[in-house]
Every structure is written in structure tokens, then in C-alpha cells.
Design a protein that fits this description.
The protein has 344 residues and is an alpha/beta fold. The chain has eleven helices and nine strands.
Length: 344
């Protein structure tokens, strides 16, 4: 690793108005057990106007004074995540072989980067595959949560929400198709042409698919994790549902073999209900009743599991909002081109 003197690993963080979180994120990277000379942090700002740049500048001074890793701040004219990460490929020194993709509203444990490198080396030694990436577990942030944030966390942990917490509930180092917060081989990324800037959301999914199509292997490990602030209010939750549905359609159009029938179940259920209703079938309401029972059961499950009575109502409401907006987004992705105003 690292053909010339300099850092071998870089944490790349695209930001846009992250003043509430970016200091905590950078602090968690500055105090890493990994030798600071082996690690650098590249922050790429997409036009923040909330004081984020001033906070990053202060953290650069702090890291320099305390012999921490080098922190570099660059303007990202492209504004979006894919553009930022591609810009990083050009800005990083040649010594950097590995790129850890992070976001401004996350934190990592002190030994995070050391663990990443340790597991990466073990995989590389034991495997004859072309290793392109290593993802980690994604856990909720430590911050105190509002009622709505708790609803959203529970919903994302539900099998009806995001696939039974696929980025949290695994217990070993293993191959995967969908690594989260991946540490990538720079060489592999450059070989497939970097991130596709047509994607505002799901750019990492697209990259993973292209890497696998080129014969690379992706892994994930439970040896370390990232703690992330998720949606903090219901408005952002609704926007997220639509946005992910919209860009999911774009992903499916580019990678048809990666579609999942599960994603279209709400539309199937609605069409079935309409057919039953229009044909005057006596029990036309049965599909809707089954759905209502399913999401209510999830609310009941998390009420007992998390010992929070508000989840009895909050989880069904959040699931209904997610399924509705995601399904509308799927159709929007078929009908509309361009970029939605809320896709920052």
C-alpha cells in the first residue's frame, strides 16, 4: 500500500449545511488510533451557508496543533455527493490507496480505521478475489431522540422498512452485494470510472453493481461500525421515501437484473384491490386489511421490543408514509428526468 511517502488511507466527506454535526464527525476521525501520518481527511463542500465551512476551518487548525491527521477542505462545484467523490479521486495524493466514504452527520469509534485496515489485510491475504470494498455496520447516533426520530429508527429496523436492518444485523465478516459506508480500493473505483454523477441518491448502489459486474468482490464486517444521524422529522422522512423510490427506478433501468418484486408490492396490492372493487367482489377490502394488520403487528412488536408505547402508532404511520412515498417515487422515476429540488 502507498507507493510513495504519504497517507495510504483517506476519509472523504461531502458536506452541505452540516454545521449541527460536522464538528463531532471530524473529532471522531482526528482521535483515531491509526498513525495520523497514514490517514488524511478530505472535506468537500457543496455550497454550505450555515457556518459549516468555518467549523471545518477551526477543526483543521485544531488537528494541526495537536499533530492529528491532515484535514483538507475543497469546494465542490458539482454540489452533489457523486461529484464530490469523483473530485476526491483527482485531489487525493498518489500515496492514497484506500478511500473511506463517510457523511457529515456520522461518527466512528476510535479504532475504526485501524480495524478497517486490519480486516482488509486479512481478506486480501485469505482471498484470491479482486477485493474492491469493505462495508461496516450502521448504528443509530448517540444523540437524544425525539418521538418522531424513535419512530423512524424503529421503522428502519423493521423487515417492512429497510430489509430487517441489513446494515446493522449481521455478525461476521462476509461477502455482500450492498456494503454500507464502504472503504474502497482507489484502483478499483478508477477502473470502473468512478461514481455516476447522474445519480443523486443511490450512487453507492450503482457503484457496487458496476464493481461486481467487472468481477470485483465486496465485503462487510461487524468488527467496527458507523453511527449515523438519520431523519429527524416527518417531513424529511416523506421526502426521503419519494427520493429513494425515484432513484431506485433509475437504478433498475440501468441494472434491470437487480430489481426486486418486493419493492412493487404496494402497487400490486392497490391494483388488486381496485380490480376486486370494480368487479364487485364481496371481500374487496381483504388486501387492505392484510396490509393494515401487517404494519400494526410491526408497531406492536417494536412496542414490546423497545418498551415504547408510542411505537404502537408511530411505526404503522411511518411504514404507511414510507411505502406510499416510495411507491409514488418509483413511478416518478419512470416519468420524469432531471433533479428534484429536495435532492441535496
Amino acid at each position: 500500500m502507498g507507493g510513495e511517502k504519504g497517507p495510504v488511507l483517506a476519509s472523504v466527506i461531502p458536506i452541505y449545511n452540516e454545521s449541527k454535526y460536522i464538528e463531532k464527525c471530524l473529532k471522531s476521525l482526528i482521535v483515531q488510533t491509526l498513525d495520523p501520518s497514514k490517514h488524511m481527511i478530505l472535506v468537500l463542500d457543496g455550497g454550505s451557508n450555515d457556518g459549516s465551512i468555518e467549523i471545518v476551518t477551526k477543526m483543521i487548525e485544531s488537528s494541526n496543533q495537536n499533530d492529528g491527521p491532515e484535514i483538507v477542505l475543497h469546494n465542490n462545484p458539482g454540489k452533489y455527493v457523486a461529484e464530490a467523490r469523483n473530485l476526491a479521486l483527482n485531489k487525493l495524493p498518489d500515496s492514497v490507496d484506500l478511500i473511506v466514504v463517510l457523511i457529515g452527520h456520522c461518527t466512528v469509534p476510535k479504532d475504526h480505521l485501524s480495524k478497517r485496515l486490519e480486516v482488509w489485510q486479512e481478506i486480501s491475504n485469505d482471498s484470491t478475489d479482486k477485493v474492491a470494498g469493505l462495508g461496516v455496520r450502521v448504528l443509530p447516533s448517540d444523540s437524544k431522540k425525539t418521538i418522531v426520530e424513535t419512530w423512524i429508527e424503529a421503522t428502519l429496523s423493521s423487515s417492512l422498512g429497510s430489509g430487517s436492518g441489513q446494515f446493522e444485523n449481521f455478525s461476521k465478516t462476509e461477502e455482500t452485494r450492498t456494503p454500507a459506508f464502504c472503504m474502497h480500493s482507489r484502483e478499483a473505483i478508477e477502473q470502473v470510472g468512478g461514481w455516476d454523477t447522474k445519480f443523486i441518491t443511490s450512487q453507492d448502489s450503482d457503484l457496487s453493481m458496476r464493481l461486481q459486474d467487472e468481477g470485483f468482490t465486496l465485503y462487510r464486517t461487524n468488527e467496527t461500525h458507523v453511527k449515523m444521524v438519520k431523519r429527524t422529522n416527518f417531513s424529511s422522512w416523506i421526502k426521503m421515501g419519494y427520493r429513494y423510490g425515484f432513484w431506485r427506478t433509475k437504478i433498475i433501468k440501468k441494472h434491470p437484473s437487480r430489481h426486486s418484486k418486493r419493492e412493487f408490492l404496494p402497487w400490486m396490492g392497490l391494483i388488486l384491490t381496485l380490480v376486486l372493487l370494480l368487479t364487485s367482489t364481496q371481500y374487496w377490502y381483504v388486501p387492505s386489511l392484510i396490509y393494515a394488520l401487517a404494519i400494526f403487528s410491526e408497531g406492536l412488536k417494536f412496542t414490546f421490543k423497545w418498551k415504547n408505547i408510542s411505537l404502537l402508532i408511530g411505526v404503522p404511520i411511518s411504514l404507511l408514509a414510507l411505502h406510499t412515498t416510495f411507491s409514488i417515487g418509483l413511478i416518478g422515476g419512470l416519468l420524469r428526468k432531471g433533479r428534484a429540488s429536495n435532492d441535496r
